[in-house]
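HUMAN:
Just now I want nothing more than another pair of eyes on a protein record. I would be glad if you read both lines and explained how they fit together. I have put the entry right below:
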Amino acid sequence: MAATKIRFEPAEYSVEELRFLLSILGKPPVVVQDMVLPAGVVLVQVLKLVKQCYELQEKFDHSEIPWAGYDRVREAIERMLAWYQTGAELARRGGPKHPSMQTWDGSRFLPRGPESDSGKVRTEILSDGRRRPLGVDLASPDGQSVGPNLIGAAPWLSPTGAGGVGDLLASTPSKLLFAENDQAHTGTITCPICEWVESYSSMASGGKNLAMGRMTKHLKQSKTQKDKHAILYGRITGKSVAA
């Protein structure tokens, strides 16, 4: 019988609650509920995880039913707290507070881009660009189911970093293709990803700008190679497709 999925997401707890959990995980729930709680800690919230872990450990002790284990949960909390520190340093330097909720393109970042966290901080970004989940499937034995000023604070911005969305970013063009026929007084803007073409008359006032507007709409709404179109849209406009 497959194990029931019980997911622990550190982002659902405050920093104060995470620190408190580090100090009391492993204690019986009846002990924790009588403790004097630090400021910023909600009893109902922390008891949820305390009870889940305690019950899973009881099943392991009496029936040898494996689970992720206290060490795996503590490790997840410690990684989350460290990741928050990285975000705080990025924010101090003018970057985003939650870097994993962005898609990184060199030292530029795009909110809610391809592979970025949505809704809450679910991953940390490793130095090679890979994203590692911060959450833990408690009932699973391995814990898992199947700008220049920012460099130094964000290790995945290393010039040698690769992985994650690195290949996708590197293979996505950075510019649109422009061409004009002076004799015919016409011009074209071509999408380098799918060769979608928008034409305009160079004699018409604002014709090129209107064509550019249609092209950015194409990049934003394209149903093919959506990630590449979204990245190119962000590079051209500085905005997120979801914005």
Notes: The two ends are 43 Å apart (CA to CA).
